[in-house]
């Protein structure tokens, strides 16, 4: 070969350069392929061998071009993602060298070849990392990341992707026996611009805790993320994980649409929809599967524990807990010892729940499809879980929280992305109200006047959902309220006795300052909001019911007007009873026969107790002073059924 080369040099000196160039190229290619091969051999010795070579198009990556009705599209102005092309740039750290500290995380050194240790060797949780705020140095980076994600990503990055949660299950759970032939499961995790550490910790947490024989697959569904690392390096990372598939949508689908897409691609008998920032407690899956296997129309949730957004500390949620909503259609987890029955099994017995949160839900795949999946008309985020919950109950299923299953959910400080439209939540609420609440929807519209005004100018297209409701033979909302959620107080909203409580003397409205919580507290006076947030009603029991739950009652503590939890006894105590004298506008406290009056700061009489020196609502001997004159002002008049 060298002789041939020599002759070539003699005969055509001019092409020498070209030949040398080619030779050099060949040598480099050889060296490179050797390197890659060595890397491959090397990785075969690892506990989780990659299932395919590092180069080439990942087989498990599906790019979904959604063909939904364009009318349903959001006004989100995002450039379409050319997923496949971008994913072939596997080892190009998209933001290397950037000076912007906020984006520095995009380089993610753990992903560079040879350094991606986290994909392969599960690191044991370092001791002391739980329940301890990590030493924080880079305050600026931190606060910009809090801004970006709604939680402290700097702290999250320092915590192992394989951390183990402290045991929080009731000791009786360890004695529970589960069937040996539980159904196979697809865990569907939708994400949109989730932070790298929290997303991967969710995935690893499922892989580390779900028994292999039941875990069919983990489906990661990318709802059109825009962050660089999710576009480029994620598919490479996922290709090293057994049983994890990545699906990308090229249109923004929102939570419901994204989960429905994942469900359509899932092969497991049971679907577990999981938010992209969760951590599973050991043994969380079996108790859920057991309940679904026993009754395929049962939809179940674990106890949702809380991960603190600042410290990533784990907080166990108190049992019993169930999901509820109020008349503004806002969701809450309600921890109520009264829910617990007195029997000895109550620590391990599932509790039926009027609604479930969206964090983690397990549902039989066929039942999910037959009951109508998620409502495709829901926009982006919010309310989809309340809609599914009411539908499941009304159309033949049931919901429950299973106490021996626990999954922790990262509570966000704020939503990591702003809605393209502030009224988006209202539009989703309108869909729920109009589809499911029959005439009871008027109660909602009075407490959310923005929704009322939107509804007056546009109607949701719920034709398909009403058809579904008919064809499934679903029951009405009255049945749901009386059978499933009898604890929800049903307001009477009588004309002239409900609305904002307007004070003539001050031109302001009675107000319950936010943040005092569901236990009650002092009433005050504030500018009339007009939003429905100050709505109250005087009912036929003579209670002044306050708040979107209607569970707080106007009460008197010393001379101060306060809110207290309403009594469940009938007739109610005279301490909680009021008469409204329409002619004078006086609101008279039954027990004391004193009148409700607005007192300004400093305008208190000498005799008043020391702790009530600030202004607010007080009980005073009745006069005809305008500060004792009140009207119930109805803000809106929603149309009937
Ligand atoms: C977790 O618990 C601690 C102490 O009990 C409390 O201060 C903190 O607010 C809790 N965090 C969350 C997110 O509930
Ligand atoms: C509502 O949606 C259905 C199908 O989903 C469609 O046939 C109908 O034309 C729509 N109605 C309006 C008023 O857009």
Automatic annotation (TrEMBL):
Location of the Ricin B lectin domain: 498-633
PANTHER family for this protein: N-ACETYLGALACTOSAMINYLTRANSFERASE, POLYPEPTIDE N-ACETYLGALACTOSAMINYLTRANSFERASE 15
Name of protein: Polypeptide N-acetylgalactosaminyltransferase
Leader peptide range in chain numbering: 1-31
UniProt source species: Gymnodraco acuticeps
Compartment(s) of residence: Golgi apparatus membrane
Pathway stated in the Swiss-Prot or TrEMBL entry: Protein modification; protein glycosylation
GO molecular function: carbohydrate binding; polypeptide N-acetylgalactosaminyltransferase activity
Family classification: Belongs to the glycosyltransferase 2 family. GalNAc-T subfamily.
